[in-house]
From TrEMBL:
UniProt entry tagged with the keyword Oxidoreductase: no
InterPro entries: ACT-like_dom_sf (IPR045865), CASTOR1_ACT-like (IPR049479), CASTOR_ACT_dom (IPR027795), CASTOR_fam (IPR026249), CASTOR_mTORC1 (IPR051719)
Gene source species: Psophia crepitans (common trumpeter)
Gene Ontology terms: biological process: negative regulation of TORC1 signaling
Function: Functions as an intracellular arginine sensor within the amino acid-sensing branch of the TORC1 signaling pathway. As a homodimer or a heterodimer with CASTOR2, binds and inhibits the GATOR subcomplex GATOR2 and thereby mTORC1. Binding of arginine to CASTOR1 allosterically disrupts the interaction of CASTOR1-containing dimers with GATOR2 which can in turn activate mTORC1 and the TORC1 signaling pathway.
Domain CASTOR ACT: 11-78, 201-262
Name of this protein: Cytosolic arginine sensor for mTORC1 subunit 1
GO molecular function terms listed in the Swiss-Prot or TrEMBL record: arginine binding; identical protein binding
């Protein structure tokens, strides 16, 4: 329904959503646990089979987006470890490899993925949710933050690493569940009694991946971050965008995360 515009760019691929549940149960939604729980079993195998993914963590669960044309490879890759279902008329229908055999091509051996630079701004972030019936109470503030509050980015010089602060605000509304990521200073502008967070109320730090726009074609970007963190049992709240990927980790673990990722960079050279 959006009118064509010279200011809007649309990727030429159609994407499908993979929702990963444990033992057939949806997550409880009481804690933002992060993407690393499923990294080894879903993200890493897809990267090995040249499947590019977009990752979207929400307060309630995580979603992996894959291009529709990659679906046969996705099913063949994951069928050995997962029961796979498709949704038809609100019902879950089992999917087998045979259902996706048409057009399946055995992937070529994967080349070593590009290791993108990672940076960590000093900004502290909150991961929040809002009860849907209270959304109207913060709608005006939400619109102001989303569209009007942020000044245009400063022109940074070549090689500038000015990451003392970063403008980042993410809002998602999926099947009635709302997730918001905002910096701690922006949170102060909202009524505190309407923003719900985990019982521990932790703050998060960001690791930003990429030195130039990443696009949507390269595979292995999410795995670059998720695999080493999964091995160390560190949660990450992960959001892919066209320009950069972003992993939020608990603030008290940021030093360990940077060290792990630096080791990964050094070993990949």
């Amino acid at each position: 329904e959006l009118p064509p515009s010279e200011f809007m760019q649309v990727a030429d691929s159609t994407w499908l959503v993979l929702s990963v549940v444990s033992n057939g149960r949806e997550p409880s939604g009481c804690q933002a646990t992060g993407v690393t729980k499923i990294a080894r079993s879903v993200i890493a195998p897809l990267a090995e089979h040249h499947v590019s993914v977009l990752m979207l963590s929400t307060y309630q669960t995580d979603f992996i987006l894959v291009r529709e044309r990659d679906l046969p490879v996705v099913i063949h890759t994951l069928a050995g470890e997962f029961d796979i279902y498709k949704e038809e008329s609100g019902e879950r229908v089992p999917v087998t490899c045979d259902d996706a055999s048409n057009g399946f091509l055995k992937p070529k051996p994967a080349a070593s993925p590009t290791l993108h630079p990672v940076q960590s701004p000093q900004t502290r972030f909150c991961v929040l949710t809002v009860a849907p019936d209270t959304l109207p109470a913060i709608a005006t503030m939400l619109i102001d933050v989303l569209f009007y509050s942020h000044s245009p980015p400063r022109e940074a010089g070549a090689g500038s690493q000015d990451l003392d602060s970063i403008t980042f605000f993410a809002f998602s509304l999926i099947e009635g569940y709302i997730s918001i990521v905002m910096d701690a200073e922006t949170q102060k502008r909202f009524p505190s009694d309407l923003l719900l967070t985990s019982s521990t109320g932790e703050l998060w730090r960001m690791v930003r991946i990429g030195g130039q726009p990443l696009g949507f074609d390269e595979c292995g970007i999410v795995a670059q971050i998720a695999e080493p963190l999964a091995a160390a049992d560190i949660s990450a709240y992960y959001i892919s965008t066209f320009n950069f990927d972003h992993a939020l980790v608990p603030e008290d673990g940021i030093d360990e995360v940077i060290q792990l990722l630096q080791q990964r960079q050094d070993s990949g050279r």
